[in-house]
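Lab notebook, bench 4. We co-purified these components, and the gel suggests they stay together. Before we commit to crystallization screens, I want a quick structural picture of the whole thing.
Request: model the full complex, all chains together.
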Amino acid sequence: MATILDGKAIAKLVRGEVARETETFRARTGRAPGLHVVLAGEDPGSVIYVRNKEKAAAEVGFAGRVHRRPSTVTEQELLELVGSLNQDEAVDGILVQMPVPSGIRGDRVIATIDPSKDVDGLHPVNAGALWSGSRGLVPCTPLGCMRLLKEAGAVLRGARALVVGRSNLVGKPTAALLLAEHATVTIAHSRTADLEKRCREADILVAAVGRPRMIRGAWIKPGAVVLDVGMNRGDDGKLCGDVEFETAKDVAAVITPVPGGVGPMTIAMLLGNTLRAAQAREGLC
Ligand code: NDP
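Here is the predicted assembly.
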């Protein structure tokens, strides 16, 4: 029976660390780190995510606010908003909540963010920095995965790691971070041949697909560490991951549940990124 990693508890630990460091930052600079979130439109999921981010930021003592725009906002208007946040000295972190309304090019909006304020780590400059080994700001969910692996005491050096999914948001940056920790990394995707075989070889398995319970317990290597990033609605209407948890937990050494595993880490790491961005802008790190 696997150890079940409590993402909620570890995220609370991270938020506590950020709150303490925020106090130190405030004492040294006379101001709080400023996180600014841009929410365009009323996508129901986005509205909830943004509310949670706003609440978490206030709890650790950040300044900043949510910039809400109607779904009729134009791309030009969003670019101008991001441009003004780039210029604003009180703004340390800018996050544009995805998806943006149809007709607006999300990648264009992201590319307009000052890379030093890009706390989602999605700007091409930050993505390039990650792959070239000089760390800029790194996407939050992959950072959360790495912190979970650390808390689990997982040995990464020389381990065979499989990341299922190759998105810019999760799969690719997670692979880059595992590689930086000297794991031997494979990235699988929808065209990967014999995914089951790849899974059976993996000491570390990160599932970031978006397909309910796609990775069967029988595919897991005994003793593997399994991180399930997926957030799906199963046929029963319940939230579930990409891994068949009930069977996988009997084979893996360590596994994250859904909900309560990787999910809570994402906002905690966003707070950490904002603090780092603020410290860097003040020359404190
Ligand atoms: P994307 O849809 O951007 O990427 C999904 C990836 O899965 C793609 O690379 C795709 O391959 C791959 N894939 C799809 N079908 C298969 C298959 N049958 N076999 C192997 N690979 C497959 O999703 P995201 O990366 O944004 O998110 C992945 C999951 O993680 C989602 O469930 C999302 O809700 C969740 N998520 C959770 C977060 C959290 O905080 N817990 C944060 C972000 C995401 P291809 O490239 O070939 O199409």
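The chain has a mean pLDDT of 97. Worth comparing against the SEC data before the next meeting. Residues 7-29 form the longest helix (23 residues).
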